[in-house]
Every structure is written in C-alpha cells, then in structure tokens.
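Researcher: Good morning. I'm working through a list of sequences from a screen, and I'd like to move beyond sequence-only analysis. For each chain I'm collecting a predicted structure so we can compare shapes side by side. This is the next one on the list. No need for commentary yet; just the structure.
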Amino acid sequence: MSMIAAFYSSKSILITGATGFLGKVLMEKLFRTSPDLKIIYILVRPKAGQTLQQRVFQILNSKLFEKVKEICPDVHEKIRPISADLNQHDFGISKEDMEELLSSTNVIFHCAATVRFDDPLRHAVQLNVTATQQLLFMASQMPKLEAFIHLSTAFSNCNLQHIDEVIYPCSVEPKKIIDSMEWLDDAIIDEITPKLIGDRPNTYTYTKALGEIVVQQEGANMNVAIIRPSIVGATWQEPFPGWVDNLNGPSGMIIAAGKGFLRSIKATPLAIADLIPADTVINLTLAAGWYTAVHRPKSTLIYHCTSGNLNPCNWLKMGLHVLETFEKVPFEKAFRRPKANFTTTSFTNHYWNAVSHRAPAVIYDIYLRLTGRKPRVTKLMNRMLRMLSMLEYFVNHSWEWSTHNTEMLMSMLSPEDQRMFNFDVRQLNWLEYIENYVLGVKKYLLKEDMAGIPEARQHLKR
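Model: Good morning. Structure tokens for this chain:
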C-alpha cells in the first residue's frame, strides 16, 4: 500500500498554476494515484468567451488525462475552479469562494509563476513574490492546512556555482521590494533593475530567490517545503513518455533544430545540461507534501530536483542524442537541415559556433506572400533568436547542487512508494529519454502525423 497515495485520499487540495505544464502533470498524478481525494481547487484566471468549467474540460480533454478518465470517470466533478487573478489584491477571489478555500484546504501546491526571463521587474515581483506572500497569508488562516509546498527553481541562486539546500539572503529585503513597486514609476524601476538583480541573469531568477525568502519568513509557523527543479522537460515515464505541451526551454530548441531554423548554438559542450523530466519533479513534490505533513520537519526543507549531481549529461551528448533521434524521427521540414559537424576544435574551445540564418526565413516569407499566405517565418526566427539569447547563460554554465534532502526523502519512502513516486534520476537513460522527448514534441506539440515518418526519412536523405 502506498503511504503517499493514502495520504492524499480524502484530502482537499489547492493548486495554483494548475493550467500550466507542471500544474497539469501534478493534477493528473494526484487523480491517477489517489482517485478518492475529496476535491482539487484550482485558481483560474477568467478568460473572455470561456466559462471556468469550459477551461476545466479543455484541460481534461488533452491526451494527458486519458488514463485518469478511465480510473476516475467523475474526475470533472472533483475539480473546483475558482475565479482568480494573481495580479489583484486577494487574487480577486469572491467572498464565498474565499470562505470555502480557508475552511476546507488541507494541502497547497503553489506552482503559479511567471517563467518569462525578460519580464519587467514590476510584473515578475507581482507574480513571483507578492502573490506568494498573499497566498501564505491565506494559508495562515486555514485551520485544516497540513502542508504548503512551494515550487521554486534550482536557478534562483545561479549567481553561485555550488548551491546548497538552504535559502540564501538577497541584498534587499523582499518586503522593501514589494513596497517600492507600489510607488516607483516604470522608468525608475527599469533603471534600478540591473543594480537589484546584480550578477543574476534575469528578473525571473531574482524574483524566485525573493519568493523563497518570503516563504521562509511568512511560513515560519506552517509546515512548508520548497522544491527547486532545474530545466523541466517532457515526461520520462508517466502517464506515458514524452508528453509536453509548451515551447519553453529545450522543446523550442528541438522544434527549431528539427525544422531547420536552428543550425547551431553557442554553448559550452562539456557544461552539464541539467534537464529534469516533469513527472520526476511532480513525484518529488508529492513525496515532499506527504513528508512535510506527516513528519512536520522543524525547519523549511529545500529539495533540489536536479540531474547533474546524480546522473550528469553534458550539452554535447544532449545535442548528439537529439541529432541521432532526428535521423530516426525526422520532422516535416520547413528548410533543409544540414548535418551538424562537431570538430576537435569545437571540443578544445568548448564552444559551438553561433550562426543565425535569417536569410532563409526572409526568402520563405516572400514565397508565402507570393502564394497568398500570411508571412510568419521571420517572426518565428526572431522569436527563436530572442529565446536563444535568453538561454545562452544557462547553456554556458555548470552548477553543483547538493541533494542531501532529496536523497533523505528517497530513503524515507517504502519500496512501493519508491516505485509509484519515482524521482531517482540515476535510473534515467538519457538516449531513450531524448528520443521519447523528440517524438513527444513531434506528436503533441507540432501535431505531426507519425505515419509520415518514412516519407520524412526519404526527404532527409534527398
């Protein structure tokens, strides 16, 4: 019998960010392993022309929830969407909904955040710091709350090379930052942003670090834990390999390379590509929720959900795995993709040359115009170049994350829980994972016909 699955049965759970990538994987796993849970509250931002219930059905109608609907046919009745906007005071939640949340919630998973690296500081602070503070205030009024689990990032302290499972101080207290956002105008905030973030690369990593300090300060009298995943990729095993539904990070790069837009990137080949599958993150998150509620640690425990310490794979190997998979599973081409050529010079210099080919994009858009279609490729190319520019910092650095708490948690699980909530990345076969990742991108993101693979292979040979 799984202790973790039994713990979540009959529980009322609040998830923020449930419409995001990790939020969906979290919901799916909860329903699949604990179908007797009482209810999952999800905070949903109102959308014009779509009811909250329609948003729920949209989530449930994805391939991800196929197994859940077999195990738990009434799953839609167990999801209670709450109209909320993290940019508003009290999230704009109605009085009736707020009373229900405060009186019923047993466990909170705070997954909501802005993950845009180039977000203006004001917006990043609002979503990653102020909203976290407000949610903790709500949590402090919940008499039945057993655990508050905060999803952060392993890169919140990327200005350090060795990162322990501790919360590091920032030069300015989060409360002062929150207060200053209320009266400073945008021009002044933009001017002081570089000074505030210091040697961090962007507002995302800075505000996630501030958010952790807020969790430590405001959650001092609660059972709180922080999960720090590295670069989150497609699912490894559950509910099936290779599921992904967004263009963030590696997924966008795989599409760009597979379609022929991306010829090479500037990266340090021997730097560790600290990729972590989404289901691994969620398994650790659910295990941490159980441990935090049942064992009630005296202090806030931070769990690093990273692969580099236990099963390292560098960017060179990662790139070769992707290219090897393209040979087996070619994408429907936009442009002809030249074969990558890794030379000894590349290895000794530790760099792949960065070459951006805007010309083919411009030519293709001219062709689209001439054939009466909307030009779109140059826009995609520019978007991709911006993405690569933002990722450059992360593909040219390596970090060492200690994983003592994560390994301790693994040792606390029964054999059944270690199997059902597996977050042991030492078992991950990178070549197999990358192959499933590329297949998942092709199938679930690009919606390409898998029956067309033989034809695409012939195209690639030509």
